[in-house]
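input
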Amino acid sequence: MNGTNLFTGANAYGNYSSGVFVSINNGTSWLQMNAGLEDTNVFALAIVGPYLFAGTNNGVWRRSIAEMIGSAGVGTKPTTDYRLSTYPNPFTDKTTITLSPSESGVVELSVVNLLGQEVARVFEGELSAGEHSFTWDASGLPDGMYECVVRMNGRAQELPIVLAR
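output
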């Protein structure tokens, strides 16, 4: 469970479907989410940071929770109400993160490592519509791949960024 979002895994049984399922309305309805899943027999699920992991006979499948929730809500609202970019990317110590929401709202802008652990909270608070820039200083962190994550209006977007000195 992640907020009002529920996840379950199922194995093929009779006429029942198998794979990973998500509900964005506390279990009232379910949508199958098997894109990229080789073996639809799911034996274990785990949420680690921003990812859902499913254990199958063929290994482990990983998918962004934000992507799954956005896909489950197709037809209701756009996945995001903002543009997110970074420059430069890759970067050596500092990068500028630009966020352009189409309307005002509460924003949480953070950077996570590939394990989904938050390494920096860049901004948290109310933003007006329009372009806003933030500088993230990654001094003291190891080189590697990170993800810039923005949450706004109940949706999230991730953008890969690379720290390379």
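quick obs: The first helix runs from residue 65 to 72.
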